[in-house]
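#lab-general

N.A. 3:47 PM
ok so I finally got the sequence cleaned up, no stray characters, all 157 residues accounted for. can someone with queue access submit it? mine expired

B.Y. 3:52 PM
send it over

N.A. 3:53 PM
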Amino acid sequence: MPNYEKLGCELCGKSSNKTPAPFFTMTNQEVFDFGYNAILKQGRPSYDKETTTCYYRHPNGIDKCVAGHFITDDEYRPEFEGLTCSNNSKYGSYFEDEMIVQRLFEHKNIDLDLIGAMQIAHDEMANYPKAETFEESWRIEMSKVAKEFGLQGPPTP
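B.Y. 4:20 PM
back already:
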């Protein structure tokens, strides 16, 4: 279980005078668009084929999962790996150690169900591609998310 005291005041609930992250005012559509485009620009999921593991921050120091793109360098902790960012039992669990990641997204006013669905889409696309290309697999998975949340989906090629 992560040490809540070491993970920073935004995460453990203590007051902070740090400048808020730029994600505080994003709508669900903006969160969706930002995450979708961040993974497209990255060109691949944050995934290790040998271990079939997805990462908020890949050990290569470059790749991030869709949820990882919303976590700043100052906020990130290795303890986040393996934890879900959703509080919805459909996408995640209610384990106490996962609450630390959930609080981070709540602190940014990011819909936990949306970011959780996007995290699942990333992991599904990495583990079970639905098309021959990375880009098409990502578009297919994120189209499902857009439909579920009533958002404008990714453009069709």
